[in-house]
Amino acid sequence: MSIRTASDAVQAALEAARWAPSVHNTQPWSFAVSGDEIGLRADTERRLRVGDPAGRELLISCGAALFNLRTAIRRAGFEPVVRVLPDPDRPSLLALVRPGGETEPDEQTRVLAGEIERRRTHRSGFTTLPVPDRLVQALVRTAEEEGAGLLALAPPAVVAVAALTEAAQIAQSEDRGRHLEVVRWARPPGSSRRDGVPAGAYPHDEPRTEPAFAQRDYAWRHEWGSPADQAGSTSPGVVMVLTTAADTREDWLKAGQALQRVLLRASAYGVSAAFHTQVLEMEHLRAFLREELCDGAYPQMIMRLGITFDDAETVRRPVSDLLR
């Protein structure tokens, strides 16, 4: 049954927003509520100062939270009214969102909303069960509905992107500042922190896929982490690149909204995603990817989609910690 008060819709939206994916689960957002209007703000204290100096990944993360806000409000029975980057004098204010006129949520909205808390990020190989071509095509259309592109890579391009990812990971592992920034967001077993990547959510050893996709070394110098692969989980899955036509702050927010819409639809069919952002954090490699594989579009996310029976652990901060 739909929620029928705007105040309840706002509370439902805040609860949904906190489940958005974010780089290293940094959860780089905060919210301010005035009446029935939610202000989505970038929490710049959580920006990766070495790996994400321009804040591109931060805004993509916040874009995913914005999509959850929109979806939860529509699921509650109201049309979301959104203003993106409403005040140039307040660059950290990314969007204002409020419930508008009453509406009956359609089936797609109900399905996507139902996946918000169930969706999980995967960080290893997938089973050999195939992702249906029809679903891949549907996900491409899903990204287009949010004004983004989604490119499914052919096998030769998959090999190239895997090699670029490996090269970027090696270079970043040799950069002490970058490496320590990643390790900062790895959580040891038993940690009470509600952000970062829990020990059960990343592999201790490199996943065995062909071609191999380098994973972040969250377990650096520790015995933390889960086994790299469950039995039979050695497929890289379907490798896709999310793109935008331009590369502005508005485009980064658009990319985040498209990403989350794709992830939720995939999750509804039992398909999970693994992310690889190392290449995109090195501008010369990102430029190469743009020109050689993305036909001039700006790559915003590299991800592998596949089927896994591993229910990864996740943590989120409570809404009370997010309100400003």
From TrEMBL:
Transmembrane segments: none annotated. Residues 188-209 are annotated as: Disordered. Coiled coil: none annotated. This is NAD(P)H nitroreductase.
